[in-house]
Amino acid sequence: MLRVLLLLLMSAMSCAQTLQMLGTPSKASLRGITAVDSKTIWIGGDAGTVMRSIDGGNTWANVNPPNASDLDFRDVEAFDAKVAYAMSSGASTRSRIFKTLDGGKTWKQQFITFDPKYFFDCFAFWNPDHGIAIGDPIGNHFSMLETHDGGDHWTVVTTLPQIIESEAAFSTGTCIVTSAENNIWFGTGSKHGARVFHSADHGRTWSVVATPMMAEDVGEGIFSMAFANPQVGIIVGGDYQKPEKIKVNAAYTLNGGKTWMATPQQPPGYRCGVAFRPGTNGNTIVTVGTTGIDITEDRGAHWRSLTNERYHSVAFTPDGSAAYVLGQNGRVAKINFRPVSPRK
User: Fold this and answer.
1) Closest listed residue to residue 21, CA positions, set 343, 342, 307, 333
2) How far apart are the C-alpha atoms of 55 and 122, rounded to whole Å?
3) Where would I find the H helices in the chain?
4) Of 142, 188, 284, 308, which is least packed with CB atoms within 10 Å of its CB?
5) Which of residues 5 and 96 earns the better pLDDT score?
6) Which residues are 47's β-sheet partners?
């Protein structure tokens, strides 16, 4: 009887999500996103696009940084309706960091480099003052910056281990994660496999572990990662040039990234965004990519397709009531979750 009740509950939960399309004033390719709460959402994209909603995505305001129309904002990290950081990705001067304290009315450019080898991938924060940014390797090490003062100063982190041949990160906006007070993880890809770098002390020391993720050539590897807590995490990726290829493009950890295991069932192809639903003990996960959106409620033992349309990134609201997904041509959608009670 208990097994029957559990199956009925899982079936009911799988029907509890709906995809609601939201209109935006943009035609940009969107990737960067933070859902601060159920009302406040910040998103970023190419053509210098940064938008903010304060009504749960019903309406959007363009709050683009000035003189940035040629920049691609792959990552946006926000803390309330007024305070947000925006990172643009690209070679040399196209990699920049901006910050606003007034909801996007004004922006301060905090970082720009003229090094032709520089290329930002993503950044993450522990709190509004303390954050870390990762970029493609320069020489034998990844480039990394850290701030402790709200971005007034960004300093170079010099403690990273050497890379292996052709190793790089991917500018999805979600290739790096911070957790608790000290943890950093970021994922990579190369001709020799996909690896996860981890520091438990703000980047002073690092460990690097191999994963079962598919990576046999440049352009394959870990494109996105998320942690439900300091122990439970997930990585997704694959081959963006062959998005329908299914090998191992999702794996999870239950020990803080010391070891990674392929999810029992694999999403149907390349995935470039992933997020845990808060309050589900790391069981409910949404992942997005070129061939659609998939949801699991049992850490990847089973995946259910929500749509076959292309999406780039996903973020949950802190209360777990909704997830927002971003795509091309200004496409934003909201996945509504509702609580379901088991049948008696």
Assistant:
1) 333
2) 26
3) 2-14
4) 308
5) 96
6) none
**Torsion sign, CA atoms 322, 25, 170, 272:** positive
Q: Could you identify the residue written with the tokens 């190419």?
A: 46
Task: Give the SS3 label for residue 5.
Answer: helix
Residue given tokens 């300093």 in the structure block: 155
Q: How far is CA 67 from CA 96, 108, 296, in A?
A: 12, 12, 41
- 81, 29, 16: which is closest to 53 by C-alpha? 81
Domains of the chain as residue ranges with CATH: 2-336 (2.130.10.10)
- Model confidence at 275, in pLDDT bands (50, 70, 90)? very high
What ranges make up the beta strands (E) of 244-309?
250-253, 261-262, 273-276, 285-289, 292-296, 304-307
Q: What is the C-alpha separation between 88 and 148, in angstroms, rounded? A: 20
Rounded to an integer, the average pLDDT of 248-272 is 97
List CB contacts of 160: < 8 A, sequence separation 6 or more.
141, 142, 144, 197, 203, 206
pTM of the model: 0.93
| pLDDT in the model for residue 339 | 67
**Residue 162 corresponds to which amino acid?**
Q
